[in-house]
Amino acid sequence: MELNFGNSVVLLLLVASVVAMLTRRLRLPYSVGLVAAGMGLAALPFSPKISLTRELLFTGLLPPLIFEAAFHLRWKELRRDLPVILALATLGVLISAGITMLGMHLVAHWQWLSALVFGVLIAATDPVSVIATFREANVHGRLRLLVEAESLFNDGTAAVAFGIVVVLASGQDLGPLAITSTILVTAGGGILAGALVGYLVLFLIGRTEDHLVETTCTTIAAYGSFLLADTLHASGVLATLTAGLVLGNRGALGIISDRGREAVQAFWEYAAFVANSIVFLLIGMHEASRNFAVAWLPAVVAILLVTGGRAAAVYPICQAFSRSRFQVSSQHQHVLFWGGLRGALALALVLGLPDGVPRREEIITVSFAVVAFSIFVQGLTVAPVLRSLGEIPAHDSKA
Questions:
Q1: What is the pLDDT of residues 5-54, one digit of tens each?
Q2: Contact 185, 234 (CB under 8 A)
Q3: Residue 156's closest CA among 183, 181, 116, 129?
Q4: pLDDT in tens, 55-67
Q5: Helices (H), ranges, the chain
Q6: Which domains can be identified in the chain, with CATH numbers?
Q7: Rounded to 5 degrees, what angle do the CA atoms 3, 351, 294 make?
Q8: What is the pTM (predicted TM-score) of this model?
Protein backbone atom coordinates (compact mmCIF):
# COMPACT_ATOMS: atom_id res chain seq x y z
CA MET A 1 0.00 0.00 0.00
CA GLU A 2 1.41 3.39 -1.02
CA LEU A 3 0.49 6.47 0.97
CA ASN A 4 -0.09 9.84 -0.67
CA PHE A 5 1.49 13.00 0.70
CA GLY A 6 -1.43 13.92 2.98
CA ASN A 7 -1.67 10.45 4.48
CA SER A 8 2.11 10.38 4.93
CA VAL A 9 2.06 13.62 6.92
CA VAL A 10 -0.79 12.35 9.12
CA LEU A 11 1.10 9.11 9.78
CA LEU A 12 4.29 11.02 10.67
CA LEU A 13 2.38 13.24 13.12
CA LEU A 14 0.70 10.19 14.68
CA VAL A 15 4.08 8.48 15.14
CA ALA A 16 5.57 11.70 16.53
CA SER A 17 2.79 11.98 19.12
CA VAL A 18 3.21 8.37 20.24
CA VAL A 19 7.00 8.74 20.39
CA ALA A 20 6.66 11.94 22.44
CA MET A 21 4.55 10.14 25.04
CA LEU A 22 6.78 7.06 25.13
CA THR A 23 10.07 8.94 25.39
CA ARG A 24 8.70 11.12 28.19
CA ARG A 25 7.59 8.02 30.07
CA LEU A 26 10.92 6.22 29.44
CA ARG A 27 12.94 9.40 30.10
CA LEU A 28 14.71 9.19 26.75
CA PRO A 29 15.61 12.10 24.44
CA TYR A 30 12.71 12.81 22.09
CA SER A 31 15.02 13.28 19.09
CA VAL A 32 16.60 9.86 19.61
CA GLY A 33 13.18 8.22 19.80
CA LEU A 34 12.08 9.94 16.60
CA VAL A 35 15.15 8.85 14.63
CA ALA A 36 14.72 5.27 15.85
CA ALA A 37 11.02 5.38 14.93
CA GLY A 38 11.92 6.77 11.50
CA MET A 39 14.28 3.86 10.91
CA GLY A 40 11.49 1.48 11.87
CA LEU A 41 9.01 3.26 9.59
CA ALA A 42 11.34 2.83 6.63
CA ALA A 43 11.04 -0.95 6.94
CA LEU A 44 7.24 -0.97 6.76
CA PRO A 45 5.40 -1.72 3.49
CA PHE A 46 3.30 1.44 3.98
CA SER A 47 6.29 3.68 4.74
CA PRO A 48 5.56 7.41 4.16
CA LYS A 49 6.68 8.56 0.71
CA ILE A 50 8.26 11.85 1.74
CA SER A 51 11.85 12.30 0.61
CA LEU A 52 14.40 14.12 2.72
CA THR A 53 15.59 16.85 0.36
CA ARG A 54 17.50 20.09 0.70
CA GLU A 55 14.43 22.06 -0.44
CA LEU A 56 12.17 20.47 2.18
CA LEU A 57 14.69 21.05 4.97
CA PHE A 58 15.75 24.56 3.99
CA THR A 59 12.49 26.15 2.85
CA GLY A 60 9.98 24.07 4.81
CA LEU A 61 11.35 22.87 8.13
CA LEU A 62 14.34 24.97 9.18
CA PRO A 63 12.71 28.45 9.11
CA PRO A 64 10.14 27.73 11.87
CA LEU A 65 12.77 26.03 14.03
CA ILE A 66 15.28 28.87 13.70
CA PHE A 67 12.64 31.59 14.08
CA GLU A 68 11.10 30.04 17.19
CA ALA A 69 14.49 29.71 18.88
CA ALA A 70 15.56 33.25 17.94
CA PHE A 71 12.19 34.68 19.02
CA HIS A 72 12.87 33.54 22.59
CA LEU A 73 16.46 34.87 22.73
CA ARG A 74 16.69 38.05 24.75
CA TRP A 75 19.09 40.62 23.31
CA LYS A 76 19.96 41.95 26.78
CA GLU A 77 21.17 38.50 27.84
CA LEU A 78 22.70 37.72 24.45
CA ARG A 79 24.74 40.93 24.46
CA ARG A 80 26.45 39.96 27.73
CA ASP A 81 28.05 36.91 26.13
CA LEU A 82 28.14 38.03 22.49
CA PRO A 83 31.96 38.08 22.14
CA VAL A 84 32.42 34.46 23.25
CA ILE A 85 29.36 33.34 21.24
CA LEU A 86 30.63 35.00 18.07
CA ALA A 87 34.14 33.62 18.61
CA LEU A 88 32.79 30.08 18.92
CA ALA A 89 30.39 30.58 16.00
CA THR A 90 33.04 31.91 13.60
CA LEU A 91 36.59 31.00 14.58
CA GLY A 92 35.37 27.81 16.24
CA VAL A 93 33.64 26.63 13.06
CA LEU A 94 36.72 27.39 10.97
CA ILE A 95 39.02 25.53 13.38
CA SER A 96 36.73 22.50 13.46
CA ALA A 97 36.36 22.51 9.67
CA GLY A 98 40.12 22.82 9.17
CA ILE A 99 40.95 19.90 11.46
CA THR A 100 38.30 17.70 9.83
CA MET A 101 39.46 18.63 6.34
CA LEU A 102 43.11 17.93 7.13
CA GLY A 103 42.33 14.60 8.77
CA MET A 104 40.03 13.37 5.99
CA HIS A 105 42.76 14.14 3.46
CA LEU A 106 45.68 12.64 5.38
CA VAL A 107 43.94 9.69 7.08
CA ALA A 108 40.99 8.82 4.82
CA HIS A 109 42.94 9.83 1.69
CA TRP A 110 40.17 11.99 0.28
CA GLN A 111 40.97 14.64 -2.32
CA TRP A 112 41.50 18.10 -0.88
CA LEU A 113 38.26 19.38 -2.41
CA SER A 114 36.16 16.51 -1.01
CA ALA A 115 37.76 16.91 2.42
CA LEU A 116 37.17 20.67 2.35
CA VAL A 117 33.50 20.31 1.40
CA PHE A 118 32.89 17.76 4.14
CA GLY A 119 34.83 19.72 6.77
CA VAL A 120 32.80 22.87 6.16
CA LEU A 121 29.34 21.30 6.02
CA ILE A 122 29.83 19.17 9.16
CA ALA A 123 31.59 21.82 11.28
CA ALA A 124 28.61 23.75 12.60
CA THR A 125 26.53 22.43 15.47
CA ASP A 126 22.89 22.09 14.50
CA PRO A 127 20.27 24.28 16.22
CA VAL A 128 17.54 21.68 15.70
CA SER A 129 19.40 18.92 17.53
CA VAL A 130 21.00 21.14 20.16
CA ILE A 131 17.89 23.09 21.15
CA ALA A 132 15.70 20.00 21.25
CA THR A 133 18.17 18.16 23.47
CA PHE A 134 18.69 21.02 25.93
CA ARG A 135 15.00 21.75 26.27
CA GLU A 136 14.30 18.11 27.00
CA ALA A 137 17.08 18.18 29.62
CA ASN A 138 15.42 21.23 31.22
CA VAL A 139 18.62 23.30 31.03
CA HIS A 140 18.28 27.01 31.82
CA GLY A 141 20.46 30.04 32.47
CA ARG A 142 23.74 31.03 30.89
CA LEU A 143 24.65 27.52 29.73
CA ARG A 144 21.51 27.18 27.64
CA LEU A 145 22.03 30.67 26.20
CA LEU A 146 25.62 29.87 25.20
CA VAL A 147 24.77 26.55 23.59
CA GLU A 148 21.59 27.65 21.79
CA ALA A 149 22.94 31.01 20.61
CA GLU A 150 26.17 29.51 19.34
CA SER A 151 24.30 26.79 17.44
CA LEU A 152 22.13 29.45 15.80
CA PHE A 153 24.93 31.84 14.90
CA ASN A 154 27.42 29.25 13.66
CA ASP A 155 24.89 28.19 11.03
CA GLY A 156 25.54 31.50 9.33
CA THR A 157 29.28 30.86 9.29
CA ALA A 158 28.76 27.38 7.87
CA ALA A 159 26.34 28.65 5.21
CA VAL A 160 28.76 31.38 4.09
CA ALA A 161 31.77 29.04 4.03
CA PHE A 162 29.77 26.34 2.26
CA GLY A 163 28.69 28.80 -0.42
CA ILE A 164 32.32 29.66 -1.11
CA VAL A 165 33.34 25.99 -1.18
CA VAL A 166 30.56 25.09 -3.62
CA VAL A 167 31.75 27.83 -5.96
CA LEU A 168 35.28 26.41 -5.74
CA ALA A 169 33.91 22.93 -6.37
CA SER A 170 32.27 24.17 -9.57
CA GLY A 171 35.72 25.01 -10.93
CA GLN A 172 35.64 28.79 -10.51
CA ASP A 173 38.75 30.54 -9.27
CA LEU A 174 38.04 32.80 -6.31
CA GLY A 175 40.53 35.42 -5.27
CA PRO A 176 40.59 37.31 -1.94
CA LEU A 177 38.36 40.08 -3.31
CA ALA A 178 35.76 37.63 -4.63
CA ILE A 179 35.75 35.70 -1.33
CA THR A 180 35.28 38.92 0.65
CA SER A 181 32.46 39.96 -1.66
CA THR A 182 30.77 36.57 -1.25
CA ILE A 183 30.99 36.80 2.55
CA LEU A 184 29.51 40.30 2.57
CA VAL A 185 26.67 39.37 0.23
CA THR A 186 25.85 36.09 1.97
CA ALA A 187 26.13 37.22 5.59
CA GLY A 188 25.37 40.93 5.25
CA GLY A 189 22.55 40.32 2.80
CA GLY A 190 20.99 37.75 5.10
CA ILE A 191 21.09 40.06 8.13
CA LEU A 192 19.69 43.00 6.13
CA ALA A 193 16.91 40.88 4.62
CA GLY A 194 15.93 39.60 8.07
CA ALA A 195 15.96 43.09 9.59
CA LEU A 196 13.94 44.54 6.69
CA VAL A 197 11.25 41.86 6.88
CA GLY A 198 11.25 41.91 10.69
CA TYR A 199 10.68 45.66 10.98
CA LEU A 200 8.13 45.65 8.15
CA VAL A 201 6.15 42.97 10.00
CA LEU A 202 6.41 44.95 13.25
CA PHE A 203 5.00 47.97 11.41
CA LEU A 204 2.01 45.88 10.31
CA ILE A 205 1.53 44.31 13.74
CA GLY A 206 1.54 47.75 15.37
CA ARG A 207 -1.64 48.57 13.48
CA THR A 208 -3.74 45.70 14.76
CA GLU A 209 -4.65 43.98 18.01
CA ASP A 210 -6.07 40.91 16.30
CA HIS A 211 -4.01 38.01 17.66
CA LEU A 212 -4.69 35.94 14.54
CA VAL A 213 -3.29 38.67 12.30
CA GLU A 214 -0.29 39.07 14.59
CA THR A 215 0.43 35.34 14.44
CA THR A 216 0.07 35.36 10.66
CA CYS A 217 2.51 38.26 10.41
CA THR A 218 5.15 36.36 12.39
CA THR A 219 4.71 33.44 9.98
CA ILE A 220 5.35 35.85 7.11
CA ALA A 221 8.47 37.04 8.93
CA ALA A 222 9.86 33.52 9.43
CA TYR A 223 9.38 32.31 5.87
CA GLY A 224 9.47 35.67 4.07
CA SER A 225 12.88 36.60 5.46
CA PHE A 226 14.30 33.20 4.49
CA LEU A 227 12.86 33.29 0.96
CA LEU A 228 13.91 36.91 0.37
CA ALA A 229 17.49 36.16 1.41
CA ASP A 230 17.54 33.00 -0.70
CA THR A 231 16.33 34.97 -3.72
CA LEU A 232 19.17 37.46 -3.16
CA HIS A 233 21.68 34.55 -2.83
CA ALA A 234 22.21 35.52 0.80
CA SER A 235 21.97 33.41 3.96
CA GLY A 236 18.37 32.44 4.69
CA VAL A 237 19.43 31.09 8.07
CA LEU A 238 20.85 34.46 9.14
CA ALA A 239 17.80 36.24 7.73
CA THR A 240 15.32 34.16 9.74
CA LEU A 241 17.55 34.42 12.81
CA THR A 242 17.61 38.21 12.50
CA ALA A 243 13.85 38.45 11.93
CA GLY A 244 13.24 36.27 14.99
CA LEU A 245 15.50 38.44 17.15
CA VAL A 246 13.79 41.62 15.92
CA LEU A 247 10.26 40.41 16.59
CA GLY A 248 11.13 38.67 19.85
CA ASN A 249 12.83 41.72 21.33
CA ARG A 250 11.09 44.71 19.73
CA GLY A 251 7.72 42.99 19.96
CA ALA A 252 8.26 42.57 23.69
CA LEU A 253 8.15 46.36 24.05
CA GLY A 254 4.39 46.38 23.54
CA ILE A 255 4.15 46.36 19.75
CA ILE A 256 2.67 42.88 19.92
CA SER A 257 -0.42 42.84 22.15
CA ASP A 258 -0.48 40.73 25.31
CA ARG A 259 -3.03 38.33 23.83
CA GLY A 260 -1.12 38.30 20.56
CA ARG A 261 2.12 37.42 22.31
CA GLU A 262 0.48 34.47 24.06
CA ALA A 263 -0.97 33.30 20.74
CA VAL A 264 2.34 33.77 18.92
CA GLN A 265 4.29 31.83 21.53
CA ALA A 266 1.76 28.98 21.55
CA PHE A 267 1.70 28.82 17.74
CA TRP A 268 5.47 28.75 17.35
CA GLU A 269 5.89 26.21 20.12
CA TYR A 270 3.54 23.93 18.19
CA ALA A 271 5.11 24.75 14.80
CA ALA A 272 8.56 23.92 16.19
CA PHE A 273 7.23 20.64 17.60
CA VAL A 274 5.79 19.62 14.22
CA ALA A 275 8.86 20.66 12.23
CA ASN A 276 11.20 19.07 14.76
CA SER A 277 9.25 15.81 14.68
CA ILE A 278 9.21 15.58 10.89
CA VAL A 279 12.92 16.45 10.62
CA PHE A 280 14.04 13.66 12.95
CA LEU A 281 11.61 11.08 11.58
CA LEU A 282 12.83 11.77 8.03
CA ILE A 283 16.46 11.61 9.19
CA GLY A 284 15.74 8.17 10.66
CA MET A 285 14.04 6.99 7.48
CA HIS A 286 16.94 8.23 5.37
CA GLU A 287 19.50 6.70 7.75
CA ALA A 288 17.85 3.31 7.24
CA SER A 289 18.30 3.61 3.47
CA ARG A 290 22.06 4.28 3.59
CA ASN A 291 24.58 1.48 3.24
CA PHE A 292 27.16 2.44 5.86
CA ALA A 293 29.18 -0.75 5.34
CA VAL A 294 30.67 0.59 2.10
CA ALA A 295 32.12 3.63 3.89
CA TRP A 296 32.62 2.39 7.46
CA LEU A 297 36.30 3.32 7.67
CA PRO A 298 35.99 6.96 6.51
CA ALA A 299 32.87 7.21 8.68
CA VAL A 300 34.79 6.16 11.80
CA VAL A 301 37.64 8.51 10.89
CA ALA A 302 35.16 11.34 10.34
CA ILE A 303 33.42 10.78 13.69
CA LEU A 304 36.77 10.94 15.52
CA LEU A 305 37.87 14.03 13.59
CA VAL A 306 34.61 15.90 14.03
CA THR A 307 34.62 15.17 17.77
CA GLY A 308 38.28 16.14 18.09
CA GLY A 309 37.75 19.25 15.98
CA ARG A 310 34.96 20.37 18.27
CA ALA A 311 37.21 19.97 21.32
CA ALA A 312 40.03 21.87 19.59
CA ALA A 313 37.60 24.72 18.91
CA VAL A 314 35.79 24.97 22.25
CA TYR A 315 38.56 24.67 24.86
CA PRO A 316 41.19 27.06 23.39
CA ILE A 317 38.60 29.72 22.53
CA CYS A 318 37.06 29.58 26.00
CA GLN A 319 40.56 29.68 27.49
CA ALA A 320 41.18 32.93 25.62
CA PHE A 321 38.33 34.51 27.64
CA SER A 322 39.44 33.02 30.97
CA ARG A 323 40.78 36.32 32.35
CA SER A 324 37.81 38.42 31.28
CA ARG A 325 34.23 38.89 32.41
CA PHE A 326 33.22 36.48 29.63
CA GLN A 327 34.96 33.57 31.38
CA VAL A 328 33.30 30.20 30.70
CA SER A 329 33.50 27.67 33.52
CA SER A 330 35.12 24.30 32.87
CA GLN A 331 31.76 22.56 33.38
CA HIS A 332 30.15 24.73 30.72
CA GLN A 333 33.08 24.09 28.38
CA HIS A 334 32.58 20.33 28.71
CA VAL A 335 28.89 20.71 27.87
CA LEU A 336 29.66 23.00 24.91
CA PHE A 337 32.02 20.33 23.62
CA TRP A 338 29.85 17.25 24.08
CA GLY A 339 26.58 19.05 23.42
CA GLY A 340 27.73 20.19 19.98
CA LEU A 341 25.38 17.89 18.07
CA ARG A 342 25.09 17.63 14.28
CA GLY A 343 21.80 17.17 12.49
CA ALA A 344 19.46 18.68 9.93
CA LEU A 345 21.67 21.59 8.84
CA ALA A 346 24.57 19.36 7.80
CA LEU A 347 22.17 17.07 5.92
CA ALA A 348 20.50 20.01 4.18
CA LEU A 349 23.90 21.21 2.98
CA VAL A 350 25.19 17.81 1.91
CA LEU A 351 21.99 16.95 0.03
CA GLY A 352 22.48 20.14 -1.99
CA LEU A 353 25.98 19.23 -3.18
CA PRO A 354 26.50 19.59 -6.94
CA ASP A 355 26.89 16.33 -8.85
CA GLY A 356 30.43 17.24 -9.88
CA VAL A 357 31.87 17.17 -6.36
CA PRO A 358 34.35 14.25 -6.03
CA ARG A 359 33.12 11.43 -3.74
CA ARG A 360 29.70 13.06 -3.49
CA GLU A 361 27.84 9.87 -2.52
CA GLU A 362 30.54 8.91 -0.02
CA ILE A 363 30.39 12.38 1.53
CA ILE A 364 26.60 12.02 1.91
CA THR A 365 26.92 8.57 3.51
CA VAL A 366 29.67 9.69 5.91
CA SER A 367 27.67 12.81 6.84
CA PHE A 368 24.68 10.64 7.76
CA ALA A 369 26.99 8.42 9.82
CA VAL A 370 28.29 11.42 11.77
CA VAL A 371 24.75 12.66 12.36
CA ALA A 372 23.68 9.18 13.53
CA PHE A 373 26.57 9.09 16.02
CA SER A 374 25.72 12.60 17.18
CA ILE A 375 22.05 11.83 17.77
CA PHE A 376 22.36 8.36 19.30
CA VAL A 377 25.66 8.54 21.22
CA GLN A 378 25.88 12.21 22.18
CA GLY A 379 22.11 12.68 22.35
CA LEU A 380 21.70 9.78 24.77
CA THR A 381 24.60 10.85 26.99
CA VAL A 382 24.09 14.63 27.18
CA ALA A 383 21.66 14.38 30.12
CA PRO A 384 23.96 12.09 32.17
CA VAL A 385 26.86 14.46 31.46
CA LEU A 386 24.74 17.40 32.62
CA ARG A 387 23.81 15.51 35.80
CA SER A 388 27.42 14.57 36.53
CA LEU A 389 28.43 18.23 36.16
CA GLY A 390 25.60 19.38 38.39
CA GLU A 391 23.82 21.35 35.66
CA ILE A 392 20.51 19.53 36.20
CA PRO A 393 19.22 17.77 39.34
CA ALA A 394 19.72 14.02 39.47
CA HIS A 395 15.97 13.55 40.04
CA ASP A 396 14.82 15.82 37.17
CA SER A 397 12.07 13.90 35.42
CA LYS A 398 12.50 15.79 32.17
CA ALA A 399 16.12 14.86 31.67
A1: 778 888 899 999 999 999 888 888 888 899 999 999 888 877 777 877 88
A2: yes
A3: 183
A4: 888 888 889 989 9
A5: 5-26, 30-42, 54-55, 62-71, 75-80, 82-106, 112-123, 127-136, 141-169, 176-183, 189-205, 211-231, 236-250, 258-289, 296-320, 330-338, 344-351, 360-373, 379-388
A6: 5-388 (1.20.1530.20)
A7: 90
A8: 0.86
